[in-house]
Specification:
Length: 240
């Protein structure tokens, strides 16, 4: 099966932008607390590995597997992490590795939570609801009994422009669209060098209300155990 690389057109500039907009050390510290005694970790949408790098700095003995659909970002993750982490270029809705995990988490890879001002919504690169449900089923199938899925809130649902090094300007424009009662985020990325366009990419994400998402999760045995006001929504695997 061919995996679509959503970030090929912006991968050269990805790290410089996200490092200015995400405190990976703080996120890693929070996740370590949530991991508890968990030792085997699945990163759903590992990207270039910046978050995992910080996690391993805090707990180097963790055994981490990273999955992403972007070969261009995974190349950078391999450079960053070396042999410390197993990497798979694979669609999470078709995940099949011979491993069980104590913890799975996602922050904007396959899924993230965003706040539109009135509601908490799931934003997902997976556009089809049946495929989204299957992605949850595949993750649940790879969690140990009592294992946990953590979906993290994201701040990437607003327009942003950053001046990077080497006179590079990185711009992210966000628009929200509704098509046949379905909601989408459209993320347009542009990189300029001295006002000349040197990279661009468009990413489309499906928005789904949290209540519907949690019904899908419950159907595969993943039950919410966290406060919905938290940035970290935690779901525990229980027998269906």
């Amino acid at each position: 099966m061919t995996v679509t690389d959503l970030y090929q057109g912006m991968s050269d500039f990805y790290n410089a932008f996200v490092q200015r907009n995400r405190d990976y050390q703080a996120i890693a510290t929070d996740l370590i607390d949530l991991f508890g005694d968990g030792q085997t970790i699945l990163d759903v949408g590992i990207g270039t590995g910046l978050l995992v790098e910080q996690i391993l700095h805090l707990r180097p003995n963790l055994r981490i597997v990273g999955v992403d659909t972007s070969a261009s970002l995974l190349e950078q993750a391999e450079e960053c992490l070396g042999s410390q982490v197993e990497l798979y270029c694979e669609d999470i809705s078709n995940l099949s590795v011979d491993k069980l995990f104590d913890i799975a988490y996602s922050r904007g890879g396959a899924w993230a939570l965003v706040n539109d001002g009135d509601h908490v919504l799931l934003a997902s690169h997976i556009l089809d609801l049946a495929t989204l449900e299957r992605s949850f089923e595949r993750v649940a199938a790879h969690l140990c009994d009592g294992g946990r899925l953590i979906i993290i809130s994201s701040n990437s649902n607003h327009t942003k422009q950053e001046q990077l090094d080497d006179n590079i300007v990185f711009e992210r424009k966000i628009t929200q669209k509704r098509v046949d009662d379905e909601q989408y985020l459209i993320l347009d990325y542009h990189c300029y060098h001295q006002k000349e366009l040197v990279g661009q990419q468009q990413v489309k994400m499906r928005l789904v209300d949290l209540e519907s998402v949690e019904k899908m999760l419950e159907a595969v045995g993943l039950i919410s155990i966290s406060n919905h006001e938290s940035e970290y929504h935690v779901y525990e695997k229980r027998s269906c």
